[in-house]
Write a structure and sequence with these properties.
The chain is of the alpha/beta class and 517 residues long. It is 42% helix and 16% strand. The chain is built from 20 helices and 18 strands. A 7-stranded mixed β-sheet has the order 2-1-3-4-5-6-7, with helices on both faces. Strands 8-11-12-13-14-15-18 form a 7-stranded parallel β-sheet. Helix 1 crosses helix 6, helix 11 packs parallel to helix 12 and helix 14 runs parallel beside helix 15. The radius of gyration is 24 Å and the shape is globular. 45% of the residues are buried.
Length: 517
């Protein structure tokens, strides 16, 4: 029996702190095999180095596993490189007090295993599903030849790659035991932020979005959980944690659509009185039966990945849907009154002032004025994403550090300025690269107010309310005035291009001759 310490290194708290369910799964599988396991959750730590030192001294583990969730904040503009924080706050303090084997895993590691090992100065990383690979690592740590053969394990020593094995995909997800996170971490801290329980109904994705890495992390084929098993797990977690806010975290919740509908029917049958949401609704697989089932099952809000409102850009992004599908999905969501966060990714290949204008006009039409339009500026290029094939000169670190795609017809700076101009005229436009950094105490306060005064409303509607108050009090007018003083020439140039080539103007954000002087 070995003593295993698992560390949650994720300290990023937007839009809320994420309960480390993946790490808890690793803990449960390892413990079931007879090993002693402790989990150190650093999400809310004020002094990670001190907590690491104290735990190492007290527990004296034989193996330490570190989960790394994000390479960065996913923004293609003003990107925040989170691996640097992990290195400074977690890995360097750990290496000072612990000389045994350290193995890293998690979504970030699955994208750049070798490069992250090199950056952090470590030897072992697991790519893909971690349950089986980590257990095999623990049980063969003394046998280097066997280690080299473990699926998913990457080994780098003295700058040389010793092993780089393909992932060990868990073949039957129904066999993974339910995990009570309260056994390993303090869930009450997450409850203060209204962090949801996270549920996967499947792993893998068969779509081919040009910027996405889900295929690399989870595989190109769907491994589906039994719908009854999914709802059994939800019932178990709600009972054990007391949390009724549940988020489905599949890459695309509604594909395959029949599998999704069967889960919704099972939820409806059990009448669990939950507050449901999903981070991955695909406009290409939305029909009225699906939205009606979601409403009846208890969906409080959804994230819809539109990414663009122009067919030209949707095609370059590798999407399986069109502008027509986006408008249809929006009509259904509005009809059934399901609050929606619309995700956009502007600045992709073949983006231009014309496709941007079309995108924003499409979203203004498709979304409710109380829906949040979350705009990511710039396509952050990740290793193993299909778009890397079209980049002739690849960076030496294999896209580990922030690398954005620069459109041919419009600069990202112009995309940013035009988008900011649109946001000053639309209260529900949310710019991910500058609006996401809400202080944690504000998130916690907002969650508390929502629970008291509007328990069925998503917290993000507070952002829209604040914008409407700013408009009413004149703050928005002042912001527009200052913005025009700084960027008037660029706005004029974009307007002139639209007029010259298509006879268009930047409507929906009024033309300059009718704007603030």
């Amino acid at each position: 029996m070995a003593k295993i310490l698992l560390i949650n290194s994720n300290r990023f708290k937007q839009p809320w702190p994420v309960i480390p369910f993946g790490l808890c799964h690793i803990a449960a599988v390892t413990e079931k095999a007879g090993h002693e396991v402790k989990v150190l959750d650093l999400c809310f730590s004020r002094n990670p180095a001190r907590e690491i030192s104290s735990m190492i001294k007290e527990f004296q583990p034989d193996v330490v596993g570190v989960s790394i969730r994000n390479i960065d904040n996913g923004a293609g503009f003003n990107t925040q490189f989170l691996i640097a924080d992990v290195k400074k706050e977690v890995i360097e303090p750990l290496k000072k007090v612990y000389k045994g084997p350290i193995v890293i895993g998690g979504p970030a590691v699955s994208i750049n295993p070798v490069e992250i090992l090199d950056y952090l100065g470590l030897n072992f990383a697991i790519k893909g599903d971690g349950e089986l690979s980590f257990l095999a690592f623990v049980e063969n740590i003394q046998n280097e030849e066997t280690l080299k053969q473990i699926k998913g394990l990457h080994i780098v020593k003295n700058g040389k790659i010793i092993a780089a094995n393909e992932p060990w995909r868990v073949p039957c997800l129904d066999e993974i035991p339910f995990v009570n996170p309260t056994k390993y971490i303090n869930v009450d801290k997450y409850r203060k932020f209204n962090s949801p329980l996270q549920i996967q109904t499947k792993r893998g994705c068969s779509l081919s979005c040009s910027y996405c890495t889900y295929n690399a992390i989870e595989g190109k084929f769907y491994r589906l959980k039994n719908p009854k098993k999914v709802v059994d797990e939800i019932e178990f977690l709600v009972k054990e944690t007391g949390i009724t806010h549940v988020e489905f975290t599949d890459s695309t919740f509604n594909i395959p659509i029949n599998h999704c509908k069967n889960i919704l029917k099972e939820l409806k049958k059990r009448n669990l009185k939950l507050k449901l949401r999903t981070m991955g609704l695909n406009p290409g697989a939305v029909d009225e039966e699906l939205i009606e089932l979601m409403k009846e099952a208890g969906f409080m809000d959804v994230d819809l990945g539109a990414e663009s409102g122009s067919n030209i850009t949707l095609k370059t992004l590798g999407k399986n849907f069109t502008k027509k599908d986006i408008i249809k999905a929006g009509d259904l969501l509005k009809r059934y009154k399901i609050p929606t966060t619309w995700y956009l990714l502007v600045g992709a290949p073949k983006e231009s002032i014309f496709t941007l204008k079309e995108t924003y006009e499409t979203l203004i039409k498709a979304a409710s004025k109380w829906d949040l339009i979350n705009i990511g500026i710039g396509l952050r290029v990740y290793n193993q994403a299909p778009v890397t094939k079209f980049i002739s000169k690849k960076p030496e670190d294999n896209f580990l550090k922030p690398y954005h795609y620069e459109p041919e017809e419009i600069s990202l700076n112009e995309v940013k300025i035009y988008t900011k101009w649109m946001a000053l005229h639309n209260d529900n436009f949310f710019m991910y690269d500058e609006d996401e950094n809400t202080p944690p105490f504000v998130l916690m306060l907002g969650s508390a107010l929502i629970k008291i005064f509007a328990p069925r409303q998503p917290i993000w509607r507070l952002f829209i309310l604040i914008r409407k108050i700013q408009r009413f009090t004149g703050i928005t007018w002042l912001r527009k005035f200052l913005f025009l003083r700084k960027y008037r020439k660029i706005i004029e140039r974009l307007e002139e291009k639209l007029k010259r080539e298509n006879g268009l103007t930047l409507n929906h954000s009024p033309s300059l001759d009718r704007e603030v002087a």
